[in-house]
Every structure is written in structure tokens, then in C-alpha cells.
């Protein structure tokens, strides 16, 4: 998978991999909430006891999945990001995390892939809220290949896992592994942690800057060891570029670097109501999440630190 060229969309790959799991593993169960049903028509007819569409009832979908887990199945729940994380948050917390059950939640539509449908369909809060839950694993792949790798590595590992997919992808897949930061390049003036589909625009933003770039596709558990090693070899300026509400990784970075005098800056979706409709590229432009906008934020942060040392 290392440096492989982008093939299909994350959603298409989700359909292929989950269908394959259903066919090969009789303990795989899929619960849908009236989203992506066309991917699983054959599976629903062939395995009606294990592939269920409950309709637009996400809380029911999650609780049903937990019941399947209690019966020995590995359940996969799927819907649009805000519907499968915010709406059934209580069910994920109580039915999966508190009971110690394993399962996989796969979303589409984050953060504003459905930007033309307004705030109800925006999903920038998914990662920040889910990573607060005990034992919750959170993955943010940047390509379809990385999605497949992370799904297969976390599948049936006994923990509740959230895998966030998006329309926006990086053009090239990296050799990612669950729970590990990938070292994209090394530098001296600081460390940038780019999450999922933010990697390539971040690389463009810092192309001529002497910065280490780490690539994060696992958000929880966070790889503190690799970050600590990178910061030990560079200036303690740490910038996180996130595709969800900015600041979600800041507590993990701060904890990893609690013995180091460091500066932390978060770049991501601002915590504000997006009251203008449009495709994700338009939201990125307005929110400063293009390569140019990210570069401005990073250079301002580094210059501010340099002035403070004078």
C-alpha cells in the first residue's frame, strides 16, 4: 500500500470491504440507517438476519448493534457523520463503551461533504466528542486504501471503533498502521501533525519550511512516543492540522509533551455555525483550510514564537 496511487472513493471501498467481511465471516453483522443501502442490496437479500436497515433511527441502530455484539457478532453501524455520532452518542457511550463491547461505526459526510444541506448535515463534532469516551478508538484515514487498512486492523479487536470517511482524499496512500503516527519528513523548526485528508494540503503549505511532518490516521489512542521523539529532534513548536473542530488533539499533544516547554497551535474547522451553504471546497476556502490558508496560520505562529524569544 505504500505510496499507492488513489484508486476509488472511501465510500466505495467501504462497500467492497464490508461486503467481503459479510461473505467471509458469519459473525459480521451490518446495521444501516437508510444510508448507502444500494451498496448492500444483495447482502440484505442473502443475509437478512445479519444485514439490517432500521431506517432513519440511528439510536436504534446503535443499540441493535450492541445487542448483536452481546450475541457474539461483530457489528458494523453506518450512516452520515452527525447522525451516527451526535444523535446516538448516549447509545455509543452506554451500550458499547460502558459495557465493554466491540463494534465498528463507519461514517460518511464529514466534516461538511454535505455542505449544501446545512448545519444538520455537518459533522465537524464527531471526532472531538467520541474521543472523550473511555476505550473508544478513532481513525481518520486519508485515502480508500488507508480506510481498508485501518478497518481490517481494528476489526473485531474487542474495542468500539469509529472510522471517519470523507469525499476529500489525499492523492497518494501512506503505509499507515493503527495506533501509529507516520513520519512523512523531518525538519528542525517544529513539528506539524497533519490528520487524514489534511496531509497533502499541509505538505504544500510547508513545502519550503524546515518542519517535521507527522501523519495521523489514528486519533485515539494517540501515538505519544513518536511525537515525543520528533519534538526531541526539533524546536518545540507543534502545529496540528485537523479536518474536524480544531483543538481536538491539543490535550493529547499537551499530555505527551508535559515534560517539555512547548508551544501548541491547532488549525481546523472553527467552532462556529456555518450558515452559508456550499461544497466542501468552498467551506475550506472560507475557513482558511486551503494550503494557502494553512501556510499563513503556520508562518504567523512560528513568527510569533521567534519574536517572543528576542
CATH superfamily of the largest domain: Thiamin diphosphate (ThDP)-binding fold, Pyr/PP domains
Largest sheet: 7 strands, mixed
CA-based shape: globular
**Unreliable runs:** 1-5
Mean pLDDT: 94
CATH-level-2 architecture of the largest domain: 3-Layer(aba) Sandwich
Strand content: 15-25%
Radius of gyration (CA) equals 19 Å
- Tell me the distance between the termini: 46 Å
CATH class of the largest domain: Alpha Beta
| Strand segment tally | 12
Oligomer: single chain
Helix count equals 12
Portion in helices: 25-40%
CATH fold title of the largest domain:
Rossmann fold
Strand neighbour order, sheet with most strands:
2-1-3-4-6-5-10
Order of helices and strands: HEHEHEHHEHEHEEEHEEHEHEHH
How many distinct domains? 2
Structural class: alpha/beta
SSE layout and pairing:
Elements lengths: L9 H15 L3 E5 L8 H6 L4 E3 L4 H13 L3 E7 H5 L3 H9 L5 E6 L17 H5 L6 E3 L4 H11 L5 E5 L17 E4 L5 E5 L3 H7 L6 E5 L1 E3 L3 H9 L4 E9 L4 H7 L6 E7 L10 H8 L3 H19 L1
Helix pairs in contact: 1-7, 3-5, 8-12, 9-10
Amino acid at each position: 500500500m505504500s505510496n499507492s496511487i488513489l484508486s476509488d472513493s472511501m465510500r466505495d471501498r467501504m462497500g467492497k470491504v464490508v461486503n467481503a467481511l459479510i461473505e467471509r465471516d458469519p459473525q459480521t453483522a451490518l446495521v444501516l440507517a437508510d444510508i448507502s443501502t444500494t451498496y448492500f442490496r444483495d447482502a440484505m437479500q442473502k443475509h437478512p438476519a445479519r444485514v439490517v436497515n432500521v431506517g432513519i433511527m440511528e439510536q436504534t441502530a446503535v443499540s441493535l448493534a450492541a445487542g448483536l455484539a452481546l450475541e457474539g457478532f461483530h457489528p458494523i453501524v453506518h450512516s452520515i457523520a452527525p447522525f451516527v455520532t451526535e444523535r446516538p452518542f448516549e447509545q455509543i457511550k452506554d451500550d458499547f463503551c460502558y459495557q465493554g463491547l466491540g463494534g465498528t461505526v463507519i461514517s460518511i459526510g464529514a466534516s461538511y461533504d454535505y455542505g449544501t444541506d446545512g448545519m444538520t448535515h455537518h459533522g465537524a463534532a464527531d471526532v472531538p466528542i467520541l474521543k472523550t469516551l473511555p476505550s473508544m478508538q478513532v481513525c481518520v484515514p486519508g485515502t480508500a486504501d488507508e480506510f481498508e487498512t485501518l478497518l481490517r486492523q481494528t476489526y473485531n479487536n474487542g474495542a468500539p471503533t469509529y472510522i471517519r470517511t470523507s469525499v476529500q482524499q489525499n492523492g497518494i496512500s501512506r503505509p499507515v498502521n493503527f495506533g501509529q503516527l507516520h513520519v512523512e519528513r523531518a525538519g528542525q523548526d517544529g513539528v506539524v501533525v497533519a490528520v487524514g485528508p489534511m496531509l497533502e494540503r499541509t505538505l504544500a503549505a510547508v513545502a519550503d519550511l524546515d518542519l517535521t511532518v507527522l501523519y495521523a490516521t489514528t486519533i485515539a489512542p494517540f501515538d505519544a512516543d513518536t511525537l515525543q521523539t520528533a519534538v526531541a529532534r526539533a524546536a518545540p513548536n507543534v502545529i496540528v492540522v485537523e479536518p474536524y473542530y480544531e483543538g481536538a488533539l491539543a490535550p493529547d499533544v499537551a499530555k505527551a509533551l508535559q515534560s517539555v516547554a512547548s508551544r501548541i497551535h491547532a488549525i481546523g474547522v472553527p467552532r462556529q455555525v456555518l450558515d452559508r451553504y456550499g461544497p466542501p471546497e468552498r467551506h475550506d476556502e472560507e475557513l482558511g483550510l486551503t494550503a494557502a490558508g494553512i501556510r499563513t496560520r503556520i508562518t504567523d505562529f512560528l513568527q510569533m514564537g521567534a519574536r517572543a524569544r528576542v
